[in-house]
Give the backbone structure.
Amino acid sequence: MLSVKNIVKYYGSNCAVNGLSFDVKNGEIFGLLGENGAGKTTTFRIIMGLLDSDSGTVTLDGKKIDYTVTDKIGFLTEERSLLTKMTVKEQLLYYGALKGMSEEKILKKMDLLLKEFEIEEYKNRKIKELSKGNQQKIQFIAAVMNDPKLLILDEPFTGLDPINVEMFKKHIRLLQNKGCSIIFSSHQMEHIEEFCEKLVILVKGKSILEGYIKDIKKDYQKQNIFIRGDIDIDEIKKIDGVISVSKKLDDYVIKIENDKIVEKVFKKISNCNITKFLVEEASLNEIFIAKVGEAK
C-alpha cells in the first residue's frame, strides 16, 4: 500500500503541496486530479523520491521510498520522455536496466509486451520514426515492464485512438488484478469515473475534495434529467429547484437541485408527448468544475 501523510513542499515562498494525505491500497486505482499547476507533478516527484518534501512522509508497504524501493515503481509521465535516436529495443533495454532487470528478463518481457500492443515490427526502428501513438505505447511499456508494485499514470491516453486506449485499459486492469497500486491522473473525467473508486482534487496544492466517487456524487445532490419530446421549457424553468434548462442534440437537459425535484418535473410534462425521461447523477466533470470554481 502507498501511504502519503501530510506532505508539504515549498518552492521559495510558493506552497506547491499543502498538507496532502491519501492512501492507495494494493489493487486500487486512485484518482489525483487538479488543474494545471495544482501540485500534481510535484506530488508525483515526491512519491518517486525525485524530490524531498519539506515535511510529511511517503511510504510503500511501510518502507520509506528510496533507491531500494524505486525499482518497484512505474511512472508514465505526461510529457514524452523517450530518447528518440535510440531504437525501441535499445530504449527498453536502457529503461529495464535502470529498474535493475537482467538483459534476459528485459528481452523476454519486451517481446511479450510488443506483441500485446501489436508493435512487434517496430522493435528495431528508431523512436523518432514512430507515430505519436506508438511512441506512447513504448513509453507505457517502459513504465510497466518491471511489473511495478506502484504505477503512476499521468494522462496515459494522450495521442491514442479508441482501439489503442482499450489496449491500455486492458493492461491497467491486468496490473490492478495483480495487486498493483495505481495513481491515475487525467483531465478526461470519464476515464477517472471508469477506473477510480477514490480521488483527491487539488487546488493550489491543497485537497479541496476527497473520498469515494459514489459518496462525492451522493453528497453533491444535483442531478440531470434528460427529456426527449415536446415540452414547455418556460413552464419547466418556473419549477422551484430547477437550476437550468438547455438543449443537447435531441434532448433537453434539466439541471435540478436534488432528487426531490424529479417528481415535480415529471408531473409537469406527464401530459406531453415524451419518448425519453432519464435521470442521472451529476457527472464528475460537473462536480470538478463546481468545486474548483468554489475553491478559487
